[in-house]
Amino acid sequence: MTPLALFLPRLDAVPRWLQITAAVVILGLMATRVWLFFRRRK
User: Fold this and answer.
1) Model pLDDT, residue 8
2) Which of 18, 19, 21, 41 has minimal CB crowding within 10 Å?
3) Could you tell me if 32 and 25 are in contact, meaning their C-beta atoms sit under 8 angstroms apart?
């Protein structure tokens, strides 16, 4: 069970702009973590 599955039933009550903002923030954090991970390996 993924953490995202817990939020899916409640997404209908959340405004569209807030969903997009949350998605951008999460993707940004993941991208930063992956970028730092690969940068540190070199």
Assistant:
1) 63
2) 41
3) no
Torsion, CA 15, CA 8, CA 3, CA 17, rounded to 10:
-20
Q: Coil, helix or strand for 14? A: coil
Helix (H, G, I), strand (E, B), or coil: what is residue 1? coil
Q: Which of 18, 23, 17 is nearest to 4 (CA)?
A: 23
Cα–Cα distance, 34 to 7 (Å, whole number): 24
pLDDT by residue (tens digit) across 4-41? 666 666 666 778 888 889 899 999 999 999 999 999 98
Residues near 19 by Cβ (< 8 Å), separated by ≥ 6? Answer: 11
